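Help needed: design a sequence for this.
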């Protein structure tokens, strides 16, 4: 596979961090709720800047929770719910430090297969079933990480329908995903 690209934030430096730093990628995915995809995935870069230029699980694991929360709250806040997401980011970092010796990438590099990868992701703070499935698809579609059974683990997010951040490879595809989501919400209103 060619060099991965994940142009989701609209900012080359922020997108580059997502490609080069597994913790930033996982943290961005965790933040992807109740805010735009761009804001969620820009969050790790902005948090890194607010914490003095370092962002890895050990930094959050060892940081004072009030300091992390303050970094989330600086205007513009990193998330719609800065206090809750600061706590969740710390819990995510704690899990990676305690369960993966601080090596975020080992969540997928050491996974036995797609089901194991899904189970590892599902166990992370802030990762429900859908988010874990989407992240399996992100790894497969954007990064070429495709353990046996990945498509079954990703479920509908493995298909070609532009339904999630896993399908974003350009500004145009981001708009296709947005249109699809808007159409689904409209259909749901009609059906209810």
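Sure. Designed sequence:
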């Amino acid at each position: 596979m060619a060099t991965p690209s994940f142009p989701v934030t609209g900012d080359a430096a922020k997108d580059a961090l997502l490609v080069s730093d597994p913790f930033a990628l996982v943290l961005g995915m965790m933040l992807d709720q109740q805010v735009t995809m761009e804001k969620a995935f820009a969050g790790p870069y902005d948090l890194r800047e607010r914490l003095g230029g370092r962002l890895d699980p050990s930094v959050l694991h060892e940081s004072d929770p009030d300091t992390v929360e303050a970094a989330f709250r600086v205007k513009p806040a990193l998330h719609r719910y800065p206090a809750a997401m600061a706590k969740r980011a710390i819990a995510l970092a704690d899990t990676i430090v305690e369960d993966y010796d601080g090596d975020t990438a080992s969540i997928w590099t050491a996974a036995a297969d797609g089901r194991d990868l899904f189970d590892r992701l599902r166990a992370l703070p802030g990762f429900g079933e859908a988010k874990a499935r989407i992240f399996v698809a992100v790894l497969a579609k954007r990064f070429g990480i495709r353990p046996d059974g990945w498509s079954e683990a990703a479920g509908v997010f493995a298909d070609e329908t532009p339904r999630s951040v896993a399908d974003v490879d350009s500004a145009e595809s981001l708009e296709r995903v947005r249109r699809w989501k808007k159409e689904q919400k409209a259909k749901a209103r009609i059906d209810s």
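The mean pLDDT is 93.
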